[in-house]
Design brief:
By secondary structure, the protein is mainly alpha-helical. 71% of the residues lie in helices and 0% in strands. It contains five helices and no strands. Helix 1 packs antiparallel against helix 2.
């Protein structure tokens, strides 16, 4: 039989042993969760890399196919009875026309781009709120020495008069 003191529900174990056992189990659980997260992320990254490589290869293949299809279109037009030069000019003109149409489409989309007005308004509102906030006063001069050394220099400073700070004040700008 096994030792009853090793069971988590055993009444013979001390509070310290129970706490140590709970801490060890919690630590093991956290380590297992981290290992699981790492495995999931590793798998997702691997899938992402494979997908990216597939898209890159697809792009390269399409890029290589464009001249082949252009020649095929030109020779197809030539087989209809037009001269070879006219066939290539028609295919070239079609590419230029397609390029102009895509450029106009892109230009129309760029004209619709506006600055992020909500974000700008929120940032201005935050800046306005922060301008009214005063920084937490930090001990300077004799007060800093008092806090650092734990002495009663403030009592001496009060008796002798106000202490002038040697540190110039820093001004904040809202820009």
């Amino acid at each position: 039989m096994s030792d009853p003191g090793n069971y988590a529900g055993s009444t013979d174990r001390s509070i310290g042993q129970l706490f140590a056992s709970a801490t060890a189990e919690m630590s093991a659980l956290v380590h297992d969760e981290i290992a699981l997260a790492k495995a999931e992320v590793r798998q997702d990254v691997k899938r992402g890399v494979i997908g990216s490589v597939a898209f890159i290869v697809t792009g390269v293949l399409i890029l290589f196919a464009i001249p082949v299809l252009s020649f095929a279109a030109a020779y197809g037009i030539h087989n209809l009875g037009l001269g070879l030069a006219w066939s290539f000019l028609i295919v070239g003109g079609a590419f230029i026309l397609l390029g102009i149409l895509l450029a106009l489409f892109g230009w129309a989309k760029f004209k619709k781009v506006k600055p992020p007005e909500k974000s700008i308004a929120s940032a201005k509102q935050t800046a306005a709120v922060l301008q009214g906030v005063k920084p937490h006063p930090r001990p300077t001069g004799a007060h800093a020495i008092e806090h650092a050394q734990g002495s009663t220099l403030s009592d001496k400073a009060i008796e002798s008069g106000p202490v002038q700070d040697a540190v110039p004040s820093v001004t904040r700008s809202s820009a």
